[in-house]
Amino acid sequence: MLLRPRLSLLRAVAPRPVPPPPRASLPVRRTLSSPAGAARTASAGDAPPPAQRTGPKGGRKSAPPPPHPRGSSVNPALFFPPGVDRDAAVAAEMVIPASNIVVGPYAGDSRVKEAEFVMSSARARDCPKDDRPEFAVLGRSNVGKSSLINALIRRKEAALTSKKPGKTQTINHFLVNKSWYLVDLPGYGTYHNDKIIDGIANGEKQSEKYNFALVFIGLFAAASQSARTDWSSFTKGYFLNRDTLVGVLLLVDASIPPQKIDIDCANWLGRNNIGLTYVFTKCDKSKKGKGGRPEENIKEFQETISSLYPEPPPWIMTSSVTGLGRDGLLLHMSQLRNYWDNEATMSP
Ligand SMILES: Nc1nc2c(ncn2[C@@H]2O[C@H](COP(=O)(O)OP(=O)(O)OP(=O)(O)O)[C@@H](O)[C@H]2O)c(=O)[nH]1
Ligand SMILES: [Mg+2]
User: Fold this and answer.
1) Which residue from 89, 59, 57, 60 is spatially nearest to 76, judged by alpha carbons?
2) What is the CATH number of the domain that holds 219?
3) Which of 120, 200, 266, 304 is deepest in the core (most CB within 10 A)?
4) 236 in ligand 1 pocket by Cβ < 6 Å?
5) 167 lines ligand 1 (CB under 6 A)
6) Which pLDDT score is estimated for 228?
7) Cβ 170 under 6 angstroms from ligand 1
8) Does a structural domain hold residue 263?
9) Ligand 1 pocket: which of 147, 170, 183 to mutate (most atoms within 8 A of CB)
10) CA 140 to ligand 2 centroid distance, Å
11) Are residues 182 and 245 in contact, defined by beta-carbon separation less than 8 angstroms?
């Protein structure tokens, strides 16, 4: 079996007791000539990068990426993909619209020419066993995971959606262009847990369903045995054992205020060295009153997560109704995928 390096471009890290200094002053180790180094983020304490879970495949060397065009402005909140020097000035047109994602040298053809549903797996070990790269779509129940997949592949009901939470119950693989997978997953939490971040302080106040989700992300051991069995042998097993996982699209509902469970999930992924991209969904939905505007909710969410990361994580605004963010997200996935492919064929 081919061993692939897992992208840790954007690992979420555990919350820090003290907020870090402004990001602009953080040391950065990315270089144009070292994609492997580019995958790692340097912390303020200059801690060693996390160990890769799998090593690069030996053999054929890839060509070095072309130099990145330089522009006139620097935005410290931008996400720099592999192959782009974090110190490089970036022209506005090099940033994907409605996102903080810079387009780098690994970005390629991102068109979806064909897509098909391949299989539904009840267990992680039943998932496809070929070597194709994949992106997992994760988020709370009803956040719009299945809808996003349909929007990306431009198929109305390839992935089944519902107004009622809990529609997707298995791991569903969709093959795109016969070369990579999008994976639809069951949601965590419930749609009715619309508590704001500060509102969830301790496990006692949480409902059984809320605990159910937290068991999945390994944070609380106090939930029922049945819940623990379901998640630990299923979705969690998928994340911990899937060598072909390029990254996670962590969906966050922009039409409601930030939810602590999403941050907890990001932290769990970070602790397990799994790279993520925040995908804000339902950006077309706007209600009157506090917490009703996507822009405000996204800003609040970003302020909350900013102290968790040594460098800004990638994020993008989307709507499965209007198509906002669709092409940009596909382009972003193309650069992560190409980097993953490229890196996997380099000599150690
Ligand atoms: N307005 C709006 N509604 C959306 C959007 N995305 C999804 N929805 C709606 O949200 C509901 C849930 O969508 P799903 O795609 O089934 O959500 P899911 O995350 O797959 O849910 P589970 O499978 O239960 O975990 C459906 O009624 C969708 O039509 C969006 O971008 N805008
Ligand atoms: Mg679904």
Assistant:
1) 89
2) 3.40.50.300
3) 266
4) no
5) yes
6) 40
7) no
8) yes
9) 147
10) 9
11) no
Residue 237 CA to ligand 1 centre (angstroms): 25
Is 157 domain-assigned?
Answer: yes
pLDDT score of 345: 55
Q: Is residue 57 part of a domain?
A: no
> What distance in angstroms lies between residue 205's CA and the mean position of ligand 2's atoms?
27
Closest CA to 79 of 49, 107, 109, 99: 99
Number of domains into which the chain is organized: 1
Strand partners, 297: none
Show the domain range for 166. Answer: 115-326
For the CA of 147, the nearest atom of ligand 1: 15
Which segments in the chain show pLDDT lower than 50? 1-3, 5, 8-74, 191-229, 231-232, 347-348
Q: Nearest 10 degrees: CA dihedral of 97, 262, 305, 106? A: -40
What is the ipTM score, two decimals? Answer: 0.99
The values of phi and psi at residue 173, to 5°, are -100, 130
Residues 6+ apart with CB under 8 A from 75: 90, 95, 100
Residues, CB-to-ion distance under 5 Å, ligand 2: 145-146, 167-168
Give ∠ CA 329-122-150 in degrees, rounded to 5.
30
Nearest to 67 by CA among 84, 82, 89: 84
- Kindly report the protein residue whose alpha carbon is nearest to atom 10 of ligand 1: 144
pLDDT by residue (tens digit) across 58-79? 333 334 444 333 333 445 699 9
121 burial level (CB within 10 Å; 0-12, 13-18, 19+): middle
Answer whether residue 158 is part of any domain: yes
Is 0.80 surpassed by the pTM of this model?
Answer: no
